[in-house]
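Hi C.,

You asked whether I'd gotten around to modeling the 254-residue construct. I have! Everything is below, sequence then structure, no commentary in between.
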Amino acid sequence: MPKKTTTRKATATRKKSSPATPAGTSAKPETRLAEYRRKRDFSRTAEPEGGPTRTAHFPAFVVQKHAARNLHYDLRLEHDGVMKSWAVPKGPSMDPSVKRLAMEVEDHPIEYNEFEGTIPQGEYGGGTVMVWDRGNYAYGGSNPDPEQGIRQGIKKGDFKFVRNGKRLKGSWALVRMRPDKSGKPQWLLIKHQDEYAIPGSDVATEHQTSVATGRSMEEIAGGRSRVWHSNRTGQKTATQPPAARKPAARTTGG
């Protein structure tokens, strides 16, 4: 009997000493992209499925103007191998007095930063997508470990970051509010008062072209080489001959 008791105590001790998952650690990118992939038929849309992840010394951000059922702007911030994403109905504002609603949506793959084109109607999010702004961002809080600060800020629902984009610059905050009726988290996107703040500015209206290609939404929608469909063999085919087709614009978060 004494030996059995000792064995049980030793087992319990080993379990307690096993390393636990650090607080705030996220699931693997493959797991976090499951919802994104479930919603899309990649034989019908040119949106990226997502490949190997990378370590980001200077994490990227992108804002994509998206004319789906309702026009909105998608804010995406690179973190833990994916793009954390929010739909901002009225787009960003450089005016610190303006607080924009930002609805959290599923994580997207890093490759989505490069997507500009048309999602076929009938597919999830069908409509035209423009790379409206892009660049890098940095943690804007007080945690000496930036990566941990980003993770904890997003988890806590009070995340400060500094953007260095072509159109959006300076210090910002995302502050989580109560979930909507569907249970999805809602946030506020707020521009901090700094040298880049522009009171009264409507930056979303002032800029109507892509920072990647210089095209308008109408020009992107008319680019037939950007719309892909699948044939019966499962191979992707374009709506114009390959000889006349231009490759999809590739953009980076730099």
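If it helps when you're writing up: The first strand starts at residue 60 and ends at 67.

Thanks,
B.
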